[in-house]
Amino acid sequence: MNLYVADTHALFWYLTGSPRLGAKAKDAFDEGARGDALIYLPTIVLAELYYLNQKLAHPLDFTAGMAALQSSSQFVFVPLEAADTLEFDANKAIPEMHDRIIVGVARRLGAACLSLDPQIVSSSLVTTIW
User: Fold this and answer.
1) What's the mean pLDDT in 10-24?
2) Which listed site, 3, 7, 19, 95, has its alpha carbon 20 to 30 Å from 26?
3) Is 127:114 a contact under the CB 8 Å cutoff?
4) What would the DSSP string read from start to end of 82-123?
């Protein structure tokens, strides 16, 4: 079974059916929907999703979307743990704290990261799929 960690934009564009979602990232989400993959969602991604949704005038019903994510077997929520901060130095090639957390989760789980973020991609700390 394939393992993926979604960043905020990947999850947002998946949930809104946006053509901005990369074809390979969409394939990964579809894999999860078929039961052939797990998509891990770090808590920070959910927090960023909430604020992105507000910033863009609520294209998602956030409460219903969260309920759908929680009831789906393809998504696994990953809480932020104090120990995650110990990975910040190992992920210092990525300047943004939230992205360091996302990459740290992907590294810890041995998962590919569904991301287009140029700093995540260029860091080569994890395999990225878009």
Assistant:
1) 97
2) 95
3) no
4) GGGGGGTTTTTTS-SHHHHHHHHHHHHHT-EEE---HHHHHH
Q: What is the pTM of this model?
A: 0.94
Q: Are 13 and 49 in contact (CB under 8 A)?
A: no
| Pairwise CA distance, residues 42 & 19, whole Å | 23
Tokens read off for 58: 């609520």
Amino acid at 71: S
Separation CA 7–CA 40 (nearest Å) = 9
What pLDDT, in 10s, does the model give residues 58-82?
A: 998 999 989 999 999 999 999 998 8
Tokens (6 digits) for 117: 């973020």
Name the token pair of 50. Answer: 């909430």
User: What CA–CA distance (Å, rounded) separates 62 from 85?
Assistant: 28
- Residue 86 has a pLDDT of 87
Give the domains, in start order, of the chain with CATH numbers: 2-129 (3.40.50.1010)
